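Why show two proteins at once? Because comparison is the fastest way to build intuition. When a single record is shown, students tend to memorize it. When two are placed side by side, the eye starts asking what differs. So, the first record is below.
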Amino acid sequence: QVQLVESGGGLVQAGGSLRLSCAASGRTLTTYKIGWFRQAPGKERDFVARIRWSDGNTRYADSVKGRFTVSRDNAKNTVYLQMNSLKPDDTAVYYCAAGALLGTSYNYWGQGTQVTISS
């Protein structure tokens, strides 16, 4: 089992920045990938970014490339999502999730943190 707890959400103006944190516990994460997803009201949950714990390899959705950065702190067992140049369209509940390196699924999810961007 992997437990994930997100934090760092809030209300910011368009153009501002936020950093989300995802603290992981329960298992060594070297064989996992950690993903960030978001779900806006009335919409499906979308992929935002992910990082492979073992080598730090990252991947981003086109909508956030160049604005968001995902990183990890091995000592703290924490993954971060630095979000810059925020837009009202980025408003959503953001979730982090963990899944095995092999495959595309994510088996463990956090509770989510609300991000609201005002125009």
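Second record. Ask yourself what differs from the first in the token line.
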Amino acid sequence: VQLQASGGGLVQAGGSLRLSCAASGNILRIDDMGWYRQAPGNQRELVASITRAGSTNYADSVKGRFTISRDNTKDTGYLEMNSLKPEDTAVYYCNAQIFTTSLRKNYYWGQGTQVTVSS
């Protein structure tokens, strides 16, 4: 099983980016999905999460600006980021709880995608 994150880049403050996280491999079902970020010198923190049914949770710092979503038919999750601020600059990682066809359940991480917001 692999998670492939994409969509990061350089954007000016106030701009927008859309991150994608595509899962592939021997997947039976994907349960919770989440986006985390880690800025230099900081610990990795949860940005947003979404259950399979679509219930969402957001860090206070991104509420009202970021939207997490998923397409269960494509085994893909998304993070729409609007009104970006310089303090949003970090490497963003996707995470997913996946049941594999061997009936094992594990958390998997994507490789990270850099988001840089200039002031």
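One difference worth noting in the second protein: The chain has a mean pLDDT of 97.
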